[in-house]
Design goal:
Blueprint: E1 5-10, H1 19-30, E2 37-42, H2 44-47, H3 54-71, E3 79-82, H4 88-97, H5 102-106, H6 109-116, H7 125-139, E4 145-148, H8 153-170, E5 178-181, H9 215-223, H10 241-254, H11 258-264, H12 270-296, H13 299-328
Parallel strand pairs: 1-2, 2-3, 4-5
Helix pairs in contact: 3-12, 4-7, 4-13, 7-8, 9-12, 10-12
Bound molecules: adenosine-5'-diphosphate (ADP) and sodium ion.
Binding site for ATP: 11-13, 20-21, 149-151, 188, 197-201
InterPro entries: aa-tRNA-synth_I_CS (IPR001412), aa-tRNA-synth_Ic (IPR002305), Rossmann-like_a/b/a_fold (IPR014729), Trp-tRNA-ligase (IPR002306), Trp-tRNA-ligase_bac-type (IPR024109), Trp-tRNA_synthetase (IPR050203)
Family: Belongs to the class-I aminoacyl-tRNA synthetase family.
């Protein structure tokens, strides 16, 4: 195939995804299935860099696969598999550990952020070397494009640096990947606290829109989103973070620019706007939820799809790993 290879992944770190993951990641992936040779991974090895409940992790892994399928990832056009089913990810990561500088790894800001809560002393070494495993995920597949949020840009740059370093020491082996950064406009914030990023680990139950929420819960959350006391439906992150957040959600789900929505709602109040956004969210996520629940009810089919895709990934990854091992003298 002459289509560019794309690689992206999500951790199975919660029972479900939120609308931020949908708008920032999965929805973008759907549009890449024809234009690229895409690999969408469920990165369970990354999920064990923080303490996990084994049963919950296993369930979240299968639930995430059902969600990918329910959202429209098509295994006939894209490869979707579970990272731990392809041992080459961990094997290449070890080789890359050997060419990564300690100082270089120490400069990764996500580790600093993620370890800030419990303290660095209490964090696992796995959380520290996480970006090296991520580089391995990307480099194993000759990935050209990595669609990520701006929070992951530094990690993709590390993958580029490691690819170039390996190539210059051992001969051309890896494709040097490009990040495809989604801009800040694609970032979704908590509905009750619209200056904090919506996150799987957020405490705010009412502010997080889960993809599998019932239609009633979806509508209620949108309609009770925090907004300011004004009346203009206008994008302004500083003065109107709540309305701006709903504009971003509506713009992404309808595929129209924010400016067009501002025009449509000129002279109309927040009530009309919120009702329409609620209807739009229900119309988008409702059918995804129904399809996801069908896949969740058929775990054997989900496992079959994952196995078939993992075989393809395994073939690609094993060939690359063999080349790497030969080059470094293993
Ligand atoms: P979370 O931060 O919710 O734990 P992940 O780190 O697993 O989610 O991210 C999975 C994907 O979803 C990444 O591509 C990330 O950039 C995207 N993403 C996460 N949160 C948001 C958000 N609030 N808005 C937009 N995209 C998001
Ligand atoms: Na994230």
């Amino acid at each position: 195939t002459d289509k560019p290879r794309v690689f992206s992944g999500i951790q199975p770190s919660a029972e479900s995804l939120h609308i931020g993951n949908y708008i920032g990641a999965v929805n973008q992936w759907l549009g890449m299935q024809d234009s690229s040779d895409a690999i969408f991974c469920i990165v369970d090895l990354h999920a064990i860099t923080v303490p996990q409940d084994p049963k919950a992790l296993r369930e979240a892994t299968r639930a995430l696969a059902a969600l990918y399928l329910g959202a429209g990832i098509d295994p006939a056009r894209s490869t979707m598999f579970v990272q731990s089913q392809v041992p080459a990810h961990a094997q290449l990561a070890w080789v890359l550990n050997g060419i990564t500088g300690f100082g270089e790894a120490s400069r990764m800001t996500q580790f600093k952020d993620k370890s800030a809560r419990g303290g660095q002393e209490a964090s696992s070494v796995g959380l520290f070397t996480y970006p090296i495993l991520m580089a391995s995920d990307i480099l194993l597949y000759d990935t050209e494009l990595v669609p990520v949020g701006d929070d992951q840009k530094q990690h993709v740059e590390l993958a580029r640096d490691l690819a170039e370093r390996f190539n210059s020491r051992f001969g051309r082996t890896f494709v040097v990947p490009q990040p495809q950064i989604r801009t800040g406009a694609a970032r979704v914030y908590d509905l009750q606290n619209p200056t904090a990023k919506m996150s799987k680990s957020a405490e705010s139950a009412a502010g997080t829109v889960w993809m599998l929420d019932s239609d009633t819960a979806l509508a209620k959350k949108i309609r009770s989103a925090v907004t300011d006391t004004g009346r203009d439906v206008r994008f302004d992150r500083d003065e109107k973070p709540g309305i701006s957040n709903l504009l971003v959600i509506a713009s992404a789900l309808r595929g129209v620019p924010v400016a067009q929505l501002e025009d449509e709602y000129a002279g109309r109040g927040y009530g009309d706007f919120k009702k329409d956004v609620a209807d739009l969210v229900v119309a988008t996520l409702g059918p995804i939820r129904e399809r996801t629940l069908e896949f969740q009810a058929d775990p054997a089919e989900v496992d079959r799809i994952l196995r078939t895709s993992a075989e393809r990934a395994h073939g690609l990854a094993t060939a690359k790993l063999a080349q790497v091992q030969e080059r470094v003298g293993l």
